[in-house]
Amino acid sequence: MADVQALRTADPFSHLRLAAAPKPRSAWRLGLQGSEFTWAIAFIIPYAGLFVAFVAYPVLYGLWLGRDPALYFELMSEPIYQRTVVNTILYLGIGVNLKMFGALMMSGFFMRRGWWVKGLLLIYVLPWAVPALPSFISIHWMLNGQWGLINNAIWAFFGIDGPGWLETSRWLALGSVIASHIWKWMPFWTVILLAGRMAIPQELYEAAEMDGATGIKRFTHVSFPLLANLYLVCTLLSTLFTLGDFNSVYFVSGGGPALSTHVLATLGIRDAFEVARPELGVAVVMSALPLMIPLVILLMRKLHTTEVSL
Amino acid sequence: MTVALAEGRARRPNYRNRRRWQEAAALLFAVVVLIWTLTPIYNIIAVSLEAHGDVFTNDLFPAKPSLESFWVVITQGYWYLEFFWRQFENSLYIGLATVFFTLSIGSLASFAIGRMRIRYGWVVSNAALLTYVIPASFLAIPFYRIMGFYGLSNNLWSVIAAEVTFATPYAIFIFHQYGVSIPIELDEAARIDGASPAQVYFKIYLPLMAPALVAVGTYALLLAWNEYLYQFLLLSSKKSMTVPVALAQFLNSDEAPWNYMMATAIVYALPPVAIYYAFRGRMTAGLTMGGVKG
Amino acid sequence: MRNFSRRSLLRGSVSLAAASTLGCPYVANAAAKTATVWWVQGFVKEEDTSFNAMVADYEKASGNTIDHSLIPFGPMMQKIVSALTSGDVPDVMTHDIAEQAVVPQNAWNDRLIDISDVVETQKQHYHPTALLASAYYNNVAKKRSYYYAPYKTAVLPFHIWGSLVEQAGYKLSDAPKTWDAFWDFFKPMQQKLREKRRGFYALGLQPTTTGPADGNNTFHHFLIANGGNGIVTADGKGHTDDPQVKEAVIKSLAYITTAFKEGYVPPGALSWSDADDNNAFHSKQMLMDLDGTISTEVALFHKKEEYDDVVTMGLPLDNAGKPMTAQLGVTGAFIPKGANNVDVAKDFIKYVIQPKVSNEYLKNGLGRWLPAFPEVVKTDPFWLSGDKHVAPYAKEGVIDPTVTNYPAFNPGYAECNAQQIWGTAAAEVIRDGATPQAAAEKALARIGQILAKYPIAQS
Known about the structure:
Chain A is mainly α. In chain A, 75% of the residues lie in helices and 0% in strands. Chain B is 71% helix and 0% strand.
């Protein structure tokens, strides 16, 4: 049996090799005995308490605030709301997938050897570590059509005026918001996928190389099948996180031009606080439930199936 | 590059050529990534170095760069920043408390669910996932209400509670996945020796979970450090607010010394960046989520 | 100020009625208590210092304690809405734009405490427009009453870079006296100034849909200049079918969107936030700007040269050649239902709205906000014959004709403002190529629909 000390000091990925080995049992034999059950209850109580006090209660309160069906009819007839739903779908569909695919590619890139790759990784994760608010405000200024850094650079290098990124076109503005979101969050997912890749035993690659799988083939036949599960789970999680992402849209485009780039998160806040109708804001949020619940169920099942075989 | 060349010398010429091309392409790609990553950060720095805090200029570089704004921030020399260090302390307090409670509540729960296999434990882990169904920004109003109800208005602990609430599900998730890799036999051996679950948790589970604890701790710290909505909603007085809320004060006015704002942002960003770099190695290990189980 | 309070205390003990006619009704409470106050933070440090001094004076005079939080403009709205929704409220709340955003709807829904007794104390002294903005319709009680105690007001003056006008070879004294012509006056300067400045624009016209105030305010001034002030009347009725209103809307939309399409307005103005126009103005990328309060100038207070270079101008005549009515923003305090200490809250507000107290408070805040009391402005030389920015600003706001913001008449208009209907209409013309006629009809129809949700019983 491995001793504790050895495990602790061993290389950080040894556990993954263990995980790849024949499935170990993870539950205690014979279940819980005597006072152990009390202990288990005691261990679970802090989280249960937190959940009841700070999740269940506010959620129920929120549902109660948005209980009037008339609110939903009002929303459906709003042109802004309809546009917002389209934006949200585009934001999630394009933003999340580009971000996750980019993260997958970047994680592959960072598997390369060399000091400069390591150095680049250090810089690459900066956006995740820098506070969101000043970053997005900085991007908002950068994208100013007349005086922003981007268009100044375009002018300096090409002598032409760049477009007004956030100012006239809905699609340009939405694209800018999506790009900002990717800028901020791709590093985080890259780090996670990178960890996943590093956990793939080197022997697998060597074996694959013997069979002639290199380059793209190596990716499609070795890396991706092993990463697929992780990738899917990450994508689902990221979709849920992104749905609640308020900062990117609020501080980069502010929902403009002409309220054309709102997403549900920002429209909810806008209706609640700017229009000063909190129940309408809650209704905007609740209307995202049909989209969210399937995602959560999918995520639970995905995690559950991986757990069953543990 | 030199490494690649040295490696390549022993191989066939066309293979060496291909390696060289690949390396060049990778470097080019790296430059693009650098520009992409650093442009917004460069803009933050450029504004912070502007003497007058003008954000709209036709120049790519600050005309007369000066470090004056950093000095103003450090010495609290502007009225929005008069309690800067106090607010920094608040942020730190909230950040550390969030890390502590996220780690302890999360690891206790995942120990009970994942290893002790308490009956209906899956209900708890699914409930944790459910927290994500309603995005944080939507719970804002209800949260404000219940904090008043719990007597925590304008209290740092209300923010800590909020941050812990949103960080813990992810913590349970990661701990659960990571815990799978720790052989259950260790627990059993300890049990046979008469260890109580608490002893197993402290002596075996926690030490072996170290990489995951570091990873989730960093995650929780960054979450609390970056979060804005709840902090401003739940804290109102200048002395109780945190740095992100103080930063938003700059947006309050029609005109603000943006150079001070960005200098504040840079000073504020230093701790998480430092922490991330310090724990980077272990963090990568801790975040694997056991995703390659296939 | 302390002396003043002691005197008023004396008077109060003699006769409250007598005191109120003298404008000094403030009476200290016998039993000291604490009230929680959410006050909106100033744009400059001096405003907050001034507020703290006022609170200290009040605490000394009354023996009560004011537990106050100075909350920034942006977050304040969210805090107020959260508090009113959840019922966990402070005793006194204020917001710079409360009369346009939260007070009308919450008075309608019976969520505010009637503070007629507070407002009555200064009724004779209030500027009539400010008084109009303090009464709101309660849909439960089915009547109008006072829910809002004004303590400061503001208008939108023009801010112009004097030196740039000269550089372009013009003199501001030559500026035409009517609205459209006044704007047109600056257009030719753009070309001249562009020789030296890339991306320079003449007009700070803001058809924006972002930010709470600027876009709507700009449009309303055009609307009024074109004779469309009757869109909502003091009885709370909308007149969106009135041909005169419709014509004014079309003319306003046409002027704004044409200036935009001709390239005199920074394209970004379509989605400017409240700070963006000031950013552009301060970095001299723009010649002039029509924007609320003299915060544009006050922000430069410590940069003497630039402060002196900006010219503040009141409004020209309207397009018919008659004196232009400016829209007066009115900031006041209100008490939510559920407040713990209504007595102290009322007492504190009574103290604050004494003309002299509020005058000191606003003067120390560099004059960014105007008193709600014409007498004070006329008698205190600070306002009309002091600073070169304050004087024209005070004249526009207090001496010249003003109208209150429409949401005071009908809470539906607050929703119209929040929906940014005017900015959206301008965007339709600019981006989607709609005619001003079509965009105007659509906007008016929408406003009509929203106002119809708030029927106001006439007494």
